[in-house]
Each structure stands twice: as structure tokens, then as C-alpha cells.
Amino acid sequence: MKKSALFLFAFLGFQTFCFSQNPFIKHMYTADPSAHVWSDGRLYVYPSTDIAPPRGCDLMDQYHVFSTDDMVNWKDHGEILRANQVEWGRKEGGFMWAPDCVYKNGKYYFYFPHPSETKWDDSFKIGIAVSDNPASGFKSKGYIKGIKNMIDPCVFVDEDGQAYFYFGGGGNCEGGKLKNNMTEIEGSMKKMEGLVDFHEATWVFKRNGFYYLTYSDNHDENGKHNRMRYAMSKNPLGPWDHKGIYMDPTDSYTNHGSIVEFKGQWYSFYHNSSLSNHDWLRSICVDKLYFNEDGTIQKVIQTK
What we know:
By secondary structure, this protein is mainly beta. The protein has one helix at 3-12, and strands at 16-18, 30-37, 43-49, 62-68, 73-82, 100-104, 107-115, 124-131, 139-143, 151-157, 163-169, 172-178, 185-191, 200-207, 210-216, 228-233, 241-247, 258-262, 265-272, 283-289. The chain is globular.
């Protein structure tokens, strides 16, 4: 897409766009989609935002929200948080990477990785912003204390109301219980055992009594990079039984996904670089996902 077209879409503001093809968001660059279905019946996607011209992932400094009620017409609800609104954050901004959002206690809790110091690589924290609405009104409320310097938060609320927090990076994935206030860890975090070739991008969901943990691996061969893997368990904190690869590499250097059921169909969200042909100007995509009778996942077919 030409830069003039991207500018026009951005200028128009919070519009509804009809894109039944991948990528389904074309007026800006987006990555790391976290997809959720809320009580209003709409599917919401919380991605990170790539900034052009890119400098790796350094300049990513804001979050937008998109939603749909039919998987064809997508609404851009606009920006919900920016680095300069994070009171504890890195003064130079940037480095607002893959987020997640969850609903509990009548509030929407938005979790995001962001460094607190100029020396960003060893000062990442998991920030929290809270709102009464799924796509507006988020206010920074500090960060989760007492956890490691890692990224890619994922929060899963089980059927009994217990919330679990996961994050990782650099080959390490940890999980633990959240207290009812959604801002503190109950007890301690523990390593997620049984994962094979874990890199980053944790996502957890439940189906038919099984817990699923999906993630990107370290694949790097013949110009192809991250594949998406998954593991299953009968316990939300494992141990996990690695099941294999459910998505082959895209045309991007990275991949980061989420899986959600919407109106009876399961979907796999991910990103590629098909709009820009640039590894760090990514675009979010979605394709249907199917399960085998034993609960294992069939490989997702990436479509245009």
C-alpha cells in the first residue's frame, strides 16, 4: 500500500473498514495480535503498533484497538495508550511490545511490556492500564512487582474465576496465579515445564477440559523464521505436553499469535509483512483454525 493511502486512512480516524482478506488491518502497521470476545458479542484485537520508518522494534510507542462483529467489517477504535502516558516508563519512550487484555471484576485490565530505564534491555516491566470499557478510557496503574525482566504478557481467566499470568522471552516461560486485584502475583511464578524450543509469544486458552499454551519457536533456516508451536495440559500451570507446530513461518522475521473462538468458529491470529515487505513493519492477519477429535490442532493454512 502506498504511503499516501496509509496517511489518508490514519487521517480519517476511527472508521470502520471492510477487509475480508489478509492482512485485515491495512491503514497502519500492526503486530502481535491478542484477540478476545467480550460480553457485547464483538471480537476485539489488541495488537502492538509498528512505526515507520522502523528502527527494529525500538520505536513502537502506542496501542490501538480493533473490533468486529462479523470478521469482515473492522472498526479502529483509536489509540488507547501511549508511552508518554506511562508514569514509570522509559523517558525516551518506545519499546511498547506485545500486549494482552482481560476482563474481570467489572474492569478491563490491559497488560503491556515496557522498560523503565534508558537501558531498556534489562529494565522491562509488565505495566497495567485499567478501564471500564474495552476500547477506551485506559489509565496506567503501575506495573506488576516482583517478577523477572521478561516480555509478552498473557492473562487467562479460568471458568472458576481464577486469573493466571504468563510471560517469557529468551527461551524462558513462566506462569503463576494473579491475586483478585489483578495487579499482584499470588505466591511465586514457576517455569512452564514440557515446552519444546520456546522462544516467546505465550498465549493460553482452554477448550473441552484441555489447557493450550501456544508460542513461537527459534526456527531460523533458509530465510524462514518463527514457527508457532503448542502444548496441552489438564492443569493451567502444567506440566505441558508438547504437541508440535500449528503454523509455519510467515514472511516476517517474527510471529506472535492468539487463538479464540467466535460465533462457533475457532480462529488463529498472527502477523506477517505482506504489506510492507519489511520485517519490522508488520500486519495482523487471521485464519480459521480446526481441531482433531483428540483435541490436537490441525496446521493453520495462511491465506490472502
